Amino acid sequence: MNRIINDPDRVVEDAIQGYLQAHANYFSATDNARVLKYPAAPIKGKVGIVTGGGSGHEPAFLGYIGKNMLDAVAIGEIFSSPTAGAFLDAFKAADSGAGVACLYGNYAGDNMNVKMAIKKATAAGMAVKTVVANDDVASAPASEIEKRRGVAGEILMWKVGAAAAAQGYDLDGVIGAAQKAIDNCRSIGVGLSSCTIPAVGKPNFHIEDGKMEIGIGHHGEPGIEVSPIQSASAMAGTMLDFVLNDMPLAKGQEVVALVSGLGATPVMELYIYYAEIEKRLAAQGVKVHRCYVGNYFTSLEMMGVTLTLMKLDDELKTLVDMPAHSLGLTQVE
Amino acid sequence: MNRIINDPDRVVEDAIQGYLQAHANYFSATDNARVLKYPAAPIKGKVGIVTGGGSGHEPAFLGYIGKNMLDAVAIGEIFSSPTAGAFLDAFKAADSGAGVACLYGNYAGDNMNVKMAIKKATAAGMAVKTVVANDDVASAPASEIEKRRGVAGEILMWKVGAAAAAQGYDLDGVIGAAQKAIDNCRSIGVGLSSCTIPAVGKPNFHIEDGKMEIGIGHHGEPGIEVSPIQSASAMAGTMLDFVLNDMPLAKGQEVVALVSGLGATPVMELYIYYAEIEKRLAAQGVKVHRCYVGNYFTSLEMMGVTLTLMKLDDELKTLVDMPAHSLGLTQVE
């Protein structure tokens, strides 16, 4: 394991320290060492936008703190949920009195800890509501959508929810917009290699040379199928089929396409892949209104790619188009 | 080799296609399939800023096309120089009549091809001047600085040169500013793993588990020393010593620090490393005026990190602080 770390048990603390030193414009420390907030937060009159999740997915989650983006983030160990206390302190850091929208992913630990944090927040007089992302079509059939994991679609949920808050939506309005965003997102991932958590010191799982795992999760959760590796073109077709079978798109429909590397895949390959996705969508009369291609939601040094499509209506389009800036996503036009 | 490609001999073409489809706001095609330009280029009255280099370093080089950034880029095969014809066509795409600054890295192929391109450009009546980046302290001793390679310091040279052009400097002024930028940059890299060029199909070189190569080049050029892997803290100390021995910094000096991953190193580790760099500089009374931490100049899926410091004066500070946006570097404040 050739890595750039000090103590394998302190990689999260050490990385947070680096983020704070590097980007005072994006990050302020709070009394909780596992909570970072946007320096201007809480922003008077604005609904606070909070998320949280395990580390190792950078720039997710903390890299989406920013202007017209997240106000505060609860930070967990690598691939582990933040504590209930961290979620609670993130709510406090984000709440200006207008309430907090906690927009997070559907994992057992996060569900439990968010629930506990909300209980305490409510007792303290705060209004906190949630949207739980479940965009990964590979993680459960459509009939059990409540079991699906949240993956890169979370970024679009944050973008839309945060834009709604910045535009002055109230808490119910923000929750409605973020829920609509994730309800219109579908994602799927393909893994090409494993990753090593520093404190573990050996790969989490194994993908053979010449194979790919379709539907793999962000923590190496088993996918649907291990197949011989496909060309970028065939891989795009396979992944798009999963998404479109779950969320058919009519001719003329506009979408956001988000193609994220899992960490170690060269960026040029993400663009080779994206070209194939856009070509296939165009052939069906579906237009990519906006795309994001890059390492937006990673899994340490895994190789692989995730595809997320968000079906747009006028409201989602306006919100997704709103300028924003953060480490992970900046949009100036 | 588990990769997301179609034809291994066409990865550059296929990736360019993806870039064009994904980002019409940043990229326009030209008559030369290996030259991309900023849609607004050539910008009337402004000195054109051009670079070029091999592929596989994304977001370098093409990802730095943008507003107040590069106007046109010549694109080579993976780890190979663009052709003289591509450089010439990039000059044409960038020249509004105010001349072109070609700011590129010191490699034999690039030197030869830029020289040939300039000969033809001059014959056609264009004014093209160059700055050749040589910021890699590991690639030759200070007494043979003209042999040193250009590495991630090129990004700061482009940022400064492009800002000067955007502020209305004439060609000699732009060249002077870019030359000053690179003269005040020093870089060094450490490699932790190799990379595989798709058309080759096996790793370029080998780094043993538990070892690191100090001074490695962006194409796997041998470094100064292979040592047992060090902690992030010790690695930062080792690398900083090389830089500061070559470019001593007085107490009170302000710098830009650029920490770039080589591709596969998890971003959180780049921040662990950055914290160590900043701490050491602070102990010497050196202030980081601005930092960039991320995958700015990569080598496919190599693991490792590069450190670049740029010593600032008032002019460089103003130019580096100018807002800009591009795929690889966006600065809104």
UniProtKB/TrEMBL annotation, chains A, B:
Residue ranges of every copy of the DhaK domain listed in the record: 7-329
UniProt keyword annotation of rRNA-binding present: no
Keyword tRNA-binding: no
Highest taxon listed in the record's lineage: Bacteria
InterPro entries the UniProt entry points to: DhaK_dom, Dihydroxyacetone_Kinase
GO molecular function, one term: glycerone kinase activity
Keyword set, alphabetical order: ATP-binding, Kinase, Nucleotide-binding, Transferase
Name of this chain's protein: Dihydroxyacetone kinase
Organism: Serratia oryzae
Lineage: Bacteria, Pseudomonadati, Pseudomonadota, Gammaproteobacteria, Enterobacterales
